[in-house]
């Protein structure tokens, strides 16, 4: 009798374990699909305000070039490692608020906030040693001998000083913002 109850109890635990395991796989799969679906340029520009960014990107060598290799929003703005990627997506949910509130829904409003937004991105890139840039570009694999003298000197100096891509290449994919005057900065505090 006790053996039969024990076997039935054990069988229930196994069934629950299998159910939880399969459920976990399904949840993980759906989660992965959701993360990847939100990791596209199409998703990024589904907010009206982000079309300004895409227009700018399309005029740069990172989008329109002889080799046909292009980048999209996630290539520069979303880390590839899972935990940093999830953190970046969590932080990006604030953009939903700004889209609803119309904070940057016109080019004028966008440009008024451009300095602040650009600096936030540059600080993040500096903190991560421009890891998104380095996914495609690396000092170790640059053939400095084929670069013009100016670029070669700058890249040699950057290597020597431990600089990162964003130290020199701000505005590489989007228009550089105008630095606000001291009066504007004081008004914003």
UniProtKB/TrEMBL annotation:
What cofactor does its activity depend on? heme
Q: Which residues form the NapC/NirT cytochrome c N-terminal domain?
A: 9-178
Name the positions where heme 4 binds.
Answer: 136, 165, 168-169
| List of residues binding heme 3 | 133, 137
Where does the record place it?
A: Cell membrane
Instruction: Enumerate the Gene3D superfamilies for this protein.
Output: Di-heme elbow motif domain
Could you identify this protein by its name?
Answer: Cytochrome c-type protein
Identify the species of origin.
Answer: Thioploca ingrica
Origin organism lineage: Bacteria, Pseudomonadati, Pseudomonadota, Gammaproteobacteria, Thiotrichales
